[in-house]
Amino acid sequence: MGLNNTDKNLLPEESSPLNAQQDNAIPTSVSKIMRKLWQLRMGVIGGLVIMALVVVALFTPYLAPGDPYAQVPKHRLSPPAWEEGGRMENLLGTDHVGRDLLTRIMYGTRISLFVGLSAVILEVFMGVLLGLLAGYYGGKTDSIISFLVNVMLGFPFILLAMSLVAVLGASLQNIIIALGLTGWPVFTRVIRIETMRLRESEFVLAAKTQGFKTIRILTVHILPNILPTLTVLASVEVARAIIMESLLSFLGLGIQPPTPSWGLLLAEGRNYMFMAWWLATFPGLAIFLAALGINLLGDALRDLTDPHLRKS
After folding, report:
1. Which residues contact 166 (CB under 8 A, 6 or more apart)?
2. Side-chain-side CA neighbours of residue 302 (13 Å)
3. CA–CA dist 278, 226 (Å, integer)
């Protein structure tokens, strides 16, 4: 018995493969994104920490509860607000001359991030340039650059940085120069090895046979393939530069008072460790969180940019 047109309209329509794919596209994409975020959860945490520090650095004048230089002697060495004798106006307490510690830490965030990023930019520029030249050309060029790297690495890093700051003078610009001039050999050595590995690759040999100029081969064919390694190394160096700036300031060779700096705050609080624990604890915690967040974010960026480490 046949079906008329009315009966055929009452039958359920068959779902096409295309419609099924469209229906599943959004849930699949969302689940893939969530799975990727879970795999990189530590990097997400690091990114949130760095984002918070950047926001604080950019908007410190609007977020800080007070003036970093304002001294209130009658409230000197006031404990954090949750301790007995603490004041809500000074959430993390005050220092030995009554300045608000939270405000000074927030203003110190600007200096630490600026020094870390600026020093690493200088290190990357020098280190990557010399590493590419040494690894690509080899021969005498490689020997000369490798000799310079070995000479630089032969000096204790902190001693060399202290010597440069002592010669140039203790200022923000000189600290950046000192950290940059002492940190580039690490980049040069790593980039040199990566370049030597890539210069014999098929795509580089093909570019040579097509007559591409050396500058194009280095910047278009080799440099993009070492970006994952460079990203991780740069993140580690930013964290190290922040720590080194804090160390130099702690030793009196960095940022000079009364300018707030995490290292300087540590130096000011060391004489009050047993009677005012917060003066050294909170600046040290800020340094720790900044270094940890940068390292976690660098590892996540490496996982995202390195094709050998990508997970479906």
Report:
1. 253
2. 16
3. 43
Long-range residue pairs from 226-231, CB within 8 A, at least 24 positions apart, any chain: 226/191, 226/194, 226/195, 226/198, 227/305, 228/301, 228/302, 228/305, 228/306, 228/309, 229/190, 229/191, 229/194, 229/302, 230/124, 230/128, 230/187, 230/191, 231/298, 231/301, 231/302, 231/305
Contact 153, 97 (CB under 8 A): no
d(CA 239, CA 295): 7
Query: Binning pLDDT at 50, 70 and 90, where does residue 99 land?
Result: very high
Query: What φ, ψ does residue 164 adopt, rounded to 5°?
Result: -65, -40
pLDDT in the model for residue 107: 92
**Which has the closest alpha carbon to 124: 193, 185, 175?**
185
Q: Looking at residue 1, what DSSP letter applies?
A: -
Take residue 286 and report the two structure tokens written for it: 């800020």
Q: Whole-number mean pLDDT of the chain?
A: 82
For residue 170, give both structure tokens: 């203790």
Report the predicted TM-score, pTM, of the whole model to 2 decimal places.
0.77
